[in-house]
Write a structure and sequence with these properties.
3 helices; 2 domains; elongated; Pectate Lyase C-like; mainly beta; 29-stranded mixed beta sheet
């Protein structure tokens, strides 16, 4: 039997092989350790349930042993079931999930009798970056819960992705701060039910910009507890526009303040810029600016609705003050150009400035309708008239 003397180079090769086996779930890309869901058992064939593989890959990512980037590779479709939970805190302060392929939700007929609140749920992950060029398909054609839910995810960044057919709100962010959502695409049919594009609840210091949103409900909904929210370069339509609220449901105390919605375009839809509150609610909505707005055949372009869902007046209401509608131009479907329907307690410090909205319906020219509104109206080219009390 021949015994071979190993050279140093042979031992080095063996060592490298052993090291490769020990870290078989980690790859080095551009000098950084990167995890791939394929190496945790995901098939990516659009049929096999890859949920377990995603969970195991995220656990490894969260532990921080193989770097801070998890890749969902291009050219594959990954079928995952609700609720897919990704929970922190994580060892790494910055977690990057890079979606290059497609992530697919089950159809309603494949879901069985389970009833999950969310499809994919991110919880308590600080510094999360969700990006890539892939598609998140909520498969919501025949059932409509939240698609992506982010709770307590401070420093969240979402960019580059395409979100289609959400089973409810496409992206929902709650109890989080220092958020950026930009350069994504959201697309659901006009007839889809409750498919908000982006929902923000108790979200602080948020920047949303450069996003086209097509949905069956609110393009963006800014809900109770949200502060210092900036929205710009967003195109909405179809859908219900950018809404503040609804606030004060079931008599609850809610507030929003320091909101800036600027340089946005609305193509069709049931409304454009809107504040909506329930009669009987408590709290306030203040320091809100809607500015540099372009309208194309949009219903209810400028709207304050304090009798949400046509609910009758009650003895208390959410207080609305320091609201500015400025430089708003374009066309509406019929006469409802400016509707400010405030509760008996009144809306105060309401500013209308530089507005030109014309109706495409010659039989129903654009009009202004106000109730219990106090403030100023200047440079109103169209619609004619003013019902703001100085």
């Amino acid at each position: 039997m021949e015994v071979r003397n190993f050279k140093f180079s042979d031992l080095l090769i063996v060592y490298i092989l052993i090291l490769s086996i020990a870290s078989c779930n980690s790859w080095v890309v551009n000098g950084e350790d990167t995890l791939d869901v394929i190496h945790y058992g995901a098939k990516g064939d659009g049929r096999t349930d890859d949920s377990k593989a995603f969970v195991e890959a995220f656990k490894a990512l969260c532990r921080g042993r193989y770097g801070n980037t998890l890749v969902v590779p291009n050219g594959r479709s990954f079928f995952v079931r609700p609720t897919l939970n990704f929970s922190g805190p994580c060892h790494s302060k910055n977690i990057n999930i890079k979606i290059m392929g497609n992530i697919l939700a089950p159809k309603r007929s494949d879901w069985g009798r389970e009833c999950s609140l969310y499809w994919i749920h991110f919880f308590n992950i600080h510094g999360l970056i969700l990006d890539g060029s892939g598609v998140i398909n909520g498969n919501g054609e025949d059932w409509w819960s939240k698609a992506l839910q982010f709770d307590k995810c401070d420093g969240l960044q979402i960019t580059g992705l395409t979100h289609i057919n959400g089973p409810g709100p496409h992206i929902a962010v709650t109890d989080s701060q220092d958020i950026t959502i930009s350069h994504i695409h959201i697309n659901s049919p006009k007839e889809s039910h409750n498919t908000d594009g982006i929902d923000l609840t108790r979200a602080i210091r948020v920047n949303v910009h450069d996003i086209p949103i097509r949905s069956g409900d609110d393009c963006i909904a800014i809900k109770g507890g949200s502060q210092f929210v900036n929205v710009s370069q967003v195109t909405c339509g179809p859908g219900h526009g950018i809404s503040v609220g609804s606030l004060g449901g079931h008599g609850s105390p809610e507030f929003v303040e320091h909101l800036r919605i600027k340089n946005c375009t609305f193509n069709g839809g049931d409304s454009a810029v809107k504040i909506k509150t329930w009669p009987g609610g408590k709290g306030y909505a203040k320091d809100i600016i809607f500015e540099d707005i372009i309208l194309y055949q949009t219903n209810y372009p400028v709207y304050i609705d304090q009798h949400y869902m046509k609910t009758p007046e009650q003895h208390q209401a959410v207080k609305i003050s320091n609201i500015k509608f400025s430089n708003i131009h374009g066309t509406c479907i019929d006469e409802n150009a400016i509707v400010l329907d405030c509760a008996k307690i009144g809306c105060y410090d309401i500013t209308l400035n530089q507005i030109k909205i014309t109706s495409i319906n010659r039989k129903k020219p654009a009009s202004v309708k106000c109730k219990n509104v106090h403030g100023t109206a200047t440079n109103i080219i169209s619609p004619k008239g003013s019902c703001v009390n100085h």
